[in-house]
Amino acid sequence: MTFRLAIPALLVLAVAAIPFAAPQLQLLMNLALAKGIAVVGVTVLLRAGQVSFGHALYFAIAAYAAAFLSASMPGADLVLVLVVAVAGAVLSGIIVGLFVVRYRGIFFGMLNLAFSMIFWSILEKFYHYTGGADGIRLPRPTVFGMALERGPFELIMFYLSVALVLLLGWFTMRWFASPAGQIFQTIKTNETRLQYLGVSPQRALLSGYILSAALCGTGGVIMGIVQGVVTPEFAWWIRSGEMVFIAVLGGAGSVAGAFVGAVIYETIRTYASAFAGDVWQMVLGGFLLVIILFAPKGVIGIYDAALARLTGKGRSE
What are phi and psi of 77, to 5 degrees? Predict the structure, then answer.
């Protein structure tokens, strides 16, 4: 058990040291962590056997809520921006969730996609309010009333992202282990039994759906603040597909896999697009194909198998 916990702890320490050991990777890692938080939201639904192709909706809603708040309240504090943005994603998740939780399978996935594309169209067409395809700026919020320069602010955002990864990752795993989380996961294995027990599958799915919306919204607002601009691309269907891609890459249903997959994806995408600009999508697709064919449980599955062999050898010796 000590060995199993030691490796994740070392990885967390390595990430925390990036601003000092490899500052050129700080922005890349910050974006990957923000994306990983959003992917955990997709992972939550995968635990119930549901795939959403439209969860970029909440990613975008939170980012635009932060941008509109910052425009109406110049100098708004970072904490206020985060709370309002995530609250906007949660409220939207409740409204949309009340409708989509009645459906399963491909209907669930496509309805989420439809809502996401409607919001994308609104962002594109209402140019005078949303900036259209160009998007709108999200100025740096203050931090406890202090207006910081770019360097110190980016450092705070990086460590805030690390803290949120640890906190939200831990909370999600604890929620899975809770009675509500266990009922939620039963939707995948035996929804009919829940009905016989007098438990509403729709209500159980809604609880997880709201959690997934909050996680996607948290990732969206962090990415918007770090980039300093939000665009309709945040709600585009490719963004939703990207989240599902990362969840499968890291290990479908794995919270840790969501973050590992996000880091791997963002790193490969960045460097592949820089050195193989015409074929970087093929590189990513080939990488995912190899994972699906030879490691269907994702990168985390490879890690668990390797760890089991190592610990098994240790016991035999």
Answer: -75, 150
Mean pLDDT of 288-311: 79
The tokens describing 69, both together, are 């708040």
Q: Spell out the residues 6+ positions from residue 66 whose beta carbon is closer than 8 angstroms to its own.
A: 81, 82, 84, 85, 138, 221, 224, 225, 230
Distance CA 189, CA 204 (A): 14
Taking each helix axis as running N to C, give the angle between helix 201-227 and helix 56-72, from 0 to 180 degrees, rounded to the nearest 10: 50
pLDDT tens-place string over residues 260-274: 989 988 888 888 777
Query: Which amino acid is located at 30 in the chain?
Result: N
pTM of the model: 0.91
Structural domains of the chain, with CATH = 2-316 (1.10.3470)
Contacting residues for 216 by C-beta, under 8 A, at least 6 apart? 37, 38, 41, 42, 55, 56, 57, 58, 59, 62, 89, 243
